[in-house]
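Q: I'm writing up a methods section and want to include an example of the input and output format. Could you take the sequence below and give the corresponding predicted C-alpha cells, formatted cleanly so I can copy it straight into the document?
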Amino acid sequence: MNTRERFVRVLTGKDVDRVPFMKIFGGTNAVTSVWLKQYPAINTYIDDLLGFEGCYRGWQITPVNMGLCGVPPDVVEYSSETETRVRHGDGSVSVHMNRDGHFFNHTVEFPVKCHDDWRRIKDSGWLNPDDPRRFPVGWKHYARIFNSRDYPLQLTCGGVYGFARGMLGDETLCIMMYEEPELVSDIISTYIEMCISIWKKMVVDVQFDIIECWEDMAYKSGSIISKHHFTEFLAPQYRRIRDFAGNAGIPLVMVDNDGNIMELSEWMSEAGVNCMYPFEVQSGNDILQIREHLPDMSCIGGLDKECMARDKYAMDAELEKARRLIPLGKFIPGPDHFVLENVPFENYEYFMRGLKRMILETKL
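A: Here is the clean output for your methods example:
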C-alpha cells in the first residue's frame, strides 16, 4: 500500500494497514533560519533525513494559478533595516518585517473597499479562468507525471471565506456581510465559479484526491463569523464544491483553518466538508471530541507544536496522545503548525522520529 492509498483510505474510514507519516506543515525541506545556521544546507535534505512520506506537506499541489492572474508587478514603496512596504498589483499594500523566521508580514491596505473597486478587479480579466497563463507550459507532461504518482494530490481553492478576506480584509468583510451582502455574495460566488471552471479542465487530465480550501476564519475563541452568516454566504459554495468533487470522483473536501474550529467543524460537516486541519491545541481544539461527535469529519494534525520548545517529557506526552487517537480512525497525526524559532532542530528531530516510530508500530 502506498502513501496515496494510505492517506485517502485513512481519511475516508476504509481499511488500511497504518496511517502515513507526513510533515503536515512547512513545505518541501522547510527549516528555520536557526537550523540553517547550525546545519548549512539542511534545507536541501531534511525531508529525506527524517523520512517524511508523500510530497510537500505530505500531499502535493499543482503549478496552476488559482488566484488573480496577470496582475501588474509589485512595487517596493520603501525599505529600511526593519521593514519593507510593498504595493501589489491588485492594489493591496503589505508591510514585511525584516526578521528571518518570523511571520510578521501583514496587509495594511486591501484591494477592495467598495463596489467600484470590485468592479475594477472583475473587469480587469484577472479572474478569467480561460487565461492560458494559468497553466504551466508543458501541463500535459505534468499530468502524465501526476497520474503515475504514489502521493496524494489536491485541487487548490484560495478559500470561500479566504478569497473574500484577501479582497476586503476581515473587519471590512464582516461589516459588509451586514451592510453590503450582495457585494460579499458576488465576490465569493465569482471566485468559486472561476475555481470550478479551472478544475473542470484539470480533472480531464488528472485524477485528484483532495480539494483543499484555505480559510483561517477562526481565532482562539472560535469562528470569526456567525453560524447565520456561514449558512448564508459560505455553505452554498461548499456544497457546490462538494457536488463537483462527487462528480469528479474526488473523495476529500478539506479545509485548512487555524484557530479554534470545534464549532466550525460542525458547520463545515453540514456543508459537505469531510476533512479539516490542523486543530491547534493551544486554541482549545480536541480531536477526541471531533471523532466522537462528528463521524463524517476526518482530522489531520492535532499535536501541540509547542511541546518541541519544551522538553522530552512534553514531547513524549504528545506522542502518547497520538497513539491513543490513531485507533479511532480518520486521523493523521502531526504538528498543529510549523515550528517557530524557539524549537531547536534536535527537538524537532526527536519528535518527528518518535512520531514515525509510533506510526509504524500502531496498526489499524
